Amino acid sequence: MSNIVSNKQEFNPAARRKARHYGMQALYQWQMTKYAVKDIELQFLADYDFSQVDVEYFHDIVHHVPANLEELEAAFTPYLDRAMGDLDPIELSLLRLGSYELIKRIDIPYKVVINEAVSLAKKFGATDGHKYINGVLDKLAAQVRTIEIKAQQHYQPQ
How many domains does the chain have? Predict the structure, then answer.
């Protein structure tokens, strides 16, 4: 009996949130160990209960963030106030994940991307790391989600 949810499930925000949670941890492990993403993914699927996780999205994160690493890092680097090597490993994993979602997953509203990254930073990161994540991703969103941001501002009641 498998503990993996079928990929044919309806969109479930809680399952997507859990996919991000495990995805960030898998990216952190990949960053620290340099093991193959395929092996890390298999380890997570074997070691954790994925019955309430959007497995397809977890797979997407674990494979596509490393595959697009150069582009993602180039996108957020201008908004850093320190060298990338000086970033906390959790913050770096979250910036990569958040940048991926902002740039490659336009189906996810930018506010959701930022809120989820901030939430994970509060849970796993340093004391004020969530503020840093928020600032960097907010600036990146202003660059890559300009139309979405302007549309939202236009329709907000004054």
Answer: 2
